[in-house]
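Hi R.,

Here's the chain you asked about this morning:
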Amino acid sequence: MQTLKTGKPIRRCPWPADNEQMIRYHDTEWGVPLHDDRKLFEFLVLDAFQAGLSWAITLKKREGFRKAFSDFDPRRVAKYDSRKVRTLLADAGIIRNRMKVEATIANARAFLTVQREFGSFDRYIWQFTGGRTKQNRWRNLSQLPARSRESDAMSQDLKARGFRFVGSTICYAFMQAAGMVNDHLVSCYRHQELAVRS
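And the predicted structure, written out as tokens:
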């Protein structure tokens, strides 16, 4: 059994189960406030591809996505053409879905437009939570919402700016990943760590 520095056994959210990759993601990334534009674009891409699938499948292919989408550099992805789309649809290292591939390219272009307007995507996206992490206090997984007032507003604004695959549920998953909300259960050791950090 893993223990904290204090010697207490680690209690974490149950959703990673015994999947080592999911546990590592839960313990080191999920819910950590993120302010790096390249990483924010990465989560935007991954959350769009995850739509309708499990996060475990998407996470398993993360390195394949990184290679396929130029290390998640939106400037490079924005220049992809129809030939590149065909290459991506033949790449077994990613989730091969034409609509999602084409949406990623469109989103890269919209992402660059937002950067020019606001100075950074970070400055734009964090306005939906007032620039701070929303601290939730859920006691079990059934309490976690699939969407929120903030994710509804984010989805509406992103769509108006030309982003695709940014429904409210996808936006809420993005907010969870990027630490815009702290949705670790109160019983999870990461909840308090992230509450102190924000």
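The beta strands are 134-135, 181-182.

Let me know if you need anything else.
M.
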